[in-house]
Specification:
With 71 residues, this protein is an alpha+beta fold. It is built from three helices and three strands; from the N terminus they run βαβαβα. InterPro entries: DUF2007, N-reg_PII-like_a/b.
């Protein structure tokens, strides 16, 4: 799996997930439990992961919609 997006903004994550699901690209959100432990202050970023073979297509979808993509 490759990291596609890393952010503390929950709306960015929701938007990215919706875009990827619309394109049929599976994704997995990591570090959800860490953000719960810190009390929803938003200090710890969450990561959105995709399979290696989906990374290029997913990166294109996010960048076409104005979201940052991790290298």
């Amino acid at each position: 799996m490759k990291m596609l997006l890393r952010t503390t903004d929950p709306t960015e994550l929701a938007f990215a997930r919706a875009l990827l699901q619309g394109e049929g690209i599976d994704c997995f959100e990591m570090d959800v439990n860490m953000s719960v432990l810190e009390g929803s202050v938003g200090i710890f970023p969450r990561r959105l992961m995709v399979a290696d073979h989906d990374f290029e297509a997913a990166a294109t979808v996010l960048s076409d919609n104005g979201l940052p993509v991790c290298d």
